[in-house]
Design goal:
By secondary structure, this protein is an all-alpha fold. It has six helices and no strands. It has a single domain, classed as Cytochrome Bc1 Complex, Chain D, domain 2 (Orthogonal Bundle).
Length: about 130
């Protein structure tokens, strides 16, 4: 690859990076609307597990640690490997759950739009213990 083509690749990569919304900088109000897709299986109330675990206080929580929820073996192993639900991990999981954690029980296909993922994460950030 020549210098010119390398420079073009860098410019395109930088442009793509700057057009993607930062995952932690989404719009919580839009995230609440997008979360409607999640409500059949998940609650945001503390201790309220449904088909999926409660998502209360999920941001920056260790994976697979909601008390009283029966996780898949794959999710338990992922959590035991030290995974944490930070913005990056949540973003990857929300985009393609079965690709992010092979063997997950979650049947949802994922959120393809980066802005929807950012908005849902912003929405979930609201549900945490008072400091």
């Amino acid at each position: 690859m020549g210098v010119k083509s390398s420079l073009v690749a860098v410019v395109f990569a930088a442009a793509a990076f700057h057009t993607m919304p930062a995952l932690a900088e989404g719009d919580a109000a839009n995230g609440e609307k997008v979360f409607r897709k999640c409500k059949a299986c998940h609650a945001v109330e503390e201790g309220k597990n449904k088909v999926g675990p409660s998502l209360y206080n999920i941001v920056d929580r260790a994976v697979g640690t909601v008390e009283g929820y029966k996780y898949s073996k794959a999710m338990i192993a992922y959590g035991e490997g030290g995974a944490v639900w930070d913005a990056e991990t949540l973003g990857a999981y929300l985009e393609a759950p079965r690709k992010a954690v092979k063997g997950t029980k979650m049947a949802f296909a994922g959120l393809r739009k980066p802005e929807e993922r950012a908005d849902v994460i912003a929405y979930l950030l609201q549900f945490k213990p008072a400091e």
